Amino acid sequence: MSTLQISLAVVGVVLLGLIVAYNAWNTRRHAPKRADRDEQARQGAEDAARFEPALDGVDVTDLPPHMRPAATQPLSTPLHDPLLDAMPDKPEFEAPIAAPQPDKAVAPVAHGAGVEEPSPTQTAAAAPVHQPLPAERKLALDGLIDAIAPIQMEQSVSGEAALQVQPTTRRAGSKPFRIEGFNEATRDWESVRAGQRYNAFQAGVQLANRTGALNEIEFSEFAAKAQTFADALNGALELPDMLHEVGRARELDQFASEHDAQLSFMLRARTAAWSPGYVRQHAGQLGFVMTNMPGRMMLPSPVPGNYPLLVLAFDAQAAQAADLDRTAFHEVMLSLDVPQVPRTEQPFAKLREVAQALCEAMDGVLCDQNGQPLHPQVLEPIAGDLELLYDQLDQRELSAGSMLARRLFN
User: Could you give the CA distance from residue 285 to residue 360 in angstroms, rounded to a whole number?
Assistant: First the structure.
């Protein structure tokens, strides 16, 4: 071979090697970013330790849809779930109340009967232990957002008898419906429980939620359910005026519509796409934990049982792929349901902090819901508007994160 032929062959081999190297580099550059395996395993263990104890002893029907076990989870939900069913069959996160034990009860002792009278300390120790929850933790009916119908009784009724005749559904149309009893022993309103006795009841239906205001048809269904319950126990039902309650419902719904804020921001990849494992790893480092909804994570509240501070969502199909490292997407959504989270937890500041950290760690850019980039200066007016919104909710006694707000904005 001549020198020219040898030179051309060498040049060809070099060019071929460069092309192969470039293609490999380009493929690697545009491949979805993958999670570090060791970090992912460690983080998964931490998520399990962090998330599972929060469900201990909690009725899963009282939890947000994305926190429920798969058996109670709908197949698909929108980004903003209907959260925390306002009037579940059980009080939400109710502390256990010890029932009286017949074999430990203290028999009444007559004065001067020759028997030593128990001391106040002994009496208190032997009496049923009642640990009422703070008002904020009770799901008691409230005239601010409920239409309430008292049911007067001629004599007390056992909890078992009341439970047998309660309506099988807890809704009147799209509105939560609830019956409470006045406990003879504790002198307090509560969800009807076996082993207790009640000398009065009250039925209530929520005036408004995110489905709209209570209408005449829903009120009529509420009245029928309450009347059936009262008749079964020989009670006297006192229904409020339907037109008055429907008018209150419309006014409350108007207020709620004007003060309902659900913020969502998009995080978009600048260059290479993200894999589900990659997003989970970086979000997990900021405190997010997995939920039972594919493609959804949450940042738990520091207060157990409260609504999560933030929700992070990405492609649900990618999250269910057989090989999570080979699926790819270019954007995730970060959302905050303002009325559900207390102002004291500073959720919007946390939202900005998390968004900035994720953008820096994953080489992303913060955008609006339409994918248009957002500058940090754009977020400043939003913070001021939220403070005004918080003030208006406070003035209406519907403070963000309170039980009434969580029921109304549900």
Answer: 13
Helix (H) or strand (E) holding 205: strand 197-206
Q: What are phi and psi of 101, to 5 degrees?
A: -100, 120
Q: What is the mean pLDDT of the chain?
A: 77
How crowded is residue 135: how many other Cβ atoms within 10 Å of its Cβ? 10
Structural domain of residue 323, as residue ranges? 259-408
Token digits of residue 192: 């009807």
* DSSP H/E element including 200: strand 197-206
Buried b (16+ CB within 10 A) or exposed e, 150-182: bbebeeebebeebeeebbeebbbbebbbbbbbb
The total number of structural domains in the chain stands at 2
265 shares a domain with 394: yes
What string of H, E and C letters represents the secondary structure of 7-68?
A: HHHHHHHHHHHHHHHHHHHHHHHHCCECCCHHHHHHHHHHHHHHHHHHHCCCCHHHCCHHHC
For residue 359, pLDDT beyond 80: yes
Q: Domain for residue 385, yes or no? A: yes
Angstrom distance (rounded) from CA 204 to CA 149:
6
What single-letter amino acid sits at 202? Q
Q: Are 329 and 314 in contact (CB under 8 A)?
A: yes
Predicted local distance difference test score (pLDDT) of residue 46? 54
Per the model's pLDDT, the better-predicted residue between 44 and 148 turns out to be: 148
Q: Tokens in use for 251?
A: 């006014």
66 vs 379, which has greater pLDDT?
379
Which residues neighbour 375 within 8 Å (Cβ) at sequence distance 6 or greater? none
pLDDT of the residue at 67? 44
